[in-house]
């Protein structure tokens, strides 16, 4: 779906990707192309499997209001889930009642290389930063010798609620959370009942 018009009924709303096997998208040598790349209002990804990505992009890149990422399986990539600030639809999306909440639950993440499994908040305009990430009941496993970063969160004002997840690593070093930019405020982490 491609839509450059963000005027009311022309905006991408309530889109769902279900039961998809998604692979070999992207461009070799580039981190700007992804297996899926969506900006919309209340986008749902469920029961999909993301495999083999060409290049260094993300499996799932999303710039939506109220994205729901549930019951998917992700294989190794530089970033498996990348939820960041909206671009051309920012004015419309920030006015949506779904704005500010991203739901990530019931997923399986498998990694065998150095990567940031989940990247959240922004990668362009901090004024359009995502707000809250609810990440529950996920299984994240790392089998490689390199460092793994489970949640890479930019430091603009954001809250991350993380509970009842399983973090498994078979070698190397790992970091459950990593904050790399201070932006315009801090990040609040609420971590509860996870298994490492």
Structure description:
The chain has 196 residues and is mainly beta. 3% of the residues lie in helices and 41% in strands. The chain contains 1 helix and 19 strands. It has one helix spanning 90-94, and strands at residues 16-18, 21-22, 36-38, 44-46, 49-50, 58-62, 68-70, 73-74, 79-83, 101-105, 108-111, 115-120, 132-136, 139-142, 148-153, 158-163, 166-169, 174-179, 187-192. A 7-stranded parallel β-sheet has the order 1-4-7-10-13-16-19, with no helix packed on it. A 6-stranded parallel β-sheet has the order 2-5-8-11-14-17, with no helix packed on it. The longest helix has 5 residues, at 90-94. It is globular, with a radius of gyration of 16 Å. The N and C termini lie far apart (39 Å). The mean pLDDT is 85.
Explain briefly what this protein structure is.
By secondary structure, the chain is mainly β.
The order of strands across the largest sheet is: 1-4-7-10-13-16-19
- Please provide the count of β strands: 19
Oligomer description: single chain
Structural class computed from helices and strand pairing: mainly beta
**What is the rounded distance between the termini?**
39 Å
Could you estimate the helical fraction of the residues in percent? Answer: under 10%
Task: Please count the helical segments.
Answer: 1
Overall, the morphology is globular
**Proportion of residues in β-strands:** 35-45%
Specify Rg, calculated over alpha carbons.
Answer: 16 Å
Largest sheet: 7 strands, parallel
What low-confidence regions span 5 or more consecutive residues with pLDDT below 50?
none
H-E string: EEEEEEEEEHEEEEEEEEEE
